[in-house]
Here is the input.
Amino acid sequence: MTAAPTRRPRWRALRDGLLLYLAVALGTAIGGVARALVSLAAIELAGPGFPWGTLAANVAGSFIIGFYATLSAPDGRLFVGARQRHFVMTGICGGFTTFSVFSLETLRFAVEGLYWMAAVYVGLSLVTWLAAAWFGHALATRINKLGGA
Here is the structure.
């Protein structure tokens, strides 16, 4: 009779872990598809010369993670569980942002001798990503301070 209580929490922990990984996997799939759409849209709008799609995805992802992390923090306005935070922040944002592609594109510029283009891309990326994360955080902080439910 004492074995049943021990198995039940272990099963719950296993189930919760599997649900967390499933949430992250689903979020990653959503983020990856959204990333592909942003890339195709950027090529259609601006052409293939400069990696605008990667830049746009990383700026948007930086804004989203800054906004959502602040809004859903313990003192934030939006109460969500750990699984939901991982779904959005690890899954969607992780699948959507493309730092490995960013590295490859920067390397491509350098290999082609376009060092100035690589430097512009790195500088523009860092500034816009950090600005987007700050803006998301600042906006969510203001929302958290609003009155009402």
About this structure: The mean pLDDT is 91. The CA atoms of residues 54 and 98 lie 6 Å apart.
